[in-house]
Write a structure and sequence with these properties.
single chain, 260 residues, mainly alpha, MetI-like fold, 82% helix
Length: 260
Amino acid sequence: MTVLAVARRVLFVLGLPAMLFTVWWYSTADSANFYFPPVPDVLNAFTTVWTGERLSTDVLPSVIRLAQGYSLAVVVGVALGTLVGTRPAVRAVLEPVLELFRAIPPPVLVPVIMLFAGIGDMMKVLVIVSGCVWPVLLNTVEGVRAVDEVLSDTCRSYGISGTARLRHLVLRSASPQIVTGMRQALSIGIILMVISEMFAASNGLGFTIVQFQRSFAIPEMWSGVLLLGLLGFGLSVLFRLLENRVLAWYHGLRRAQRSS
């Protein structure tokens, strides 16, 4: 990739965020509105609040809960999605139930989960799982059901079955859609991480932002919102790097098909 191509790609990725930040800066430069402070005030609050003790007392617990809930949702979603996608009888039985639970907004389940899991970290992890599992599960089902019949017949002809067939054919063929579901689940997980920490919490990003809002520490509140945006952006970039590594074969195949 040439230097010009790299520069064009960086400009494409950072151009819109830079433009939006510039608009935010100049639109609030002379702001006298208490609820919309100038950007320098927000940045000063950011460096004061989020570079000290709160990194370990609020940011780290939130990230750990997100990682735990997201990982559990991926494991459950892929396992159950593979079972539903490969077994028509199981799909016929579970599909109505899955559609029913999928239609329930995860924030509504927070009080219910609190009844069974209490108000500790387990509740917050389960709230994240309750929302993240659906994109992974449904994309896994569709990916497994879309396995190429020719490849399936080839495996059968060569006697490849059981775990080997599941690993090398089914999951590999479905992996692009599974990764798509994981990408969708990541953004949902960040949202539910914040929502879960607004209920009966004593730390975390959601808890801290609400505390700032209730105490009318507005620049600090906006600094928390900015941190959430940066966290989401960083996780998205990290996920894209992992995706490019895991699905290198798939992206290479797509490029070869476009060039042919």
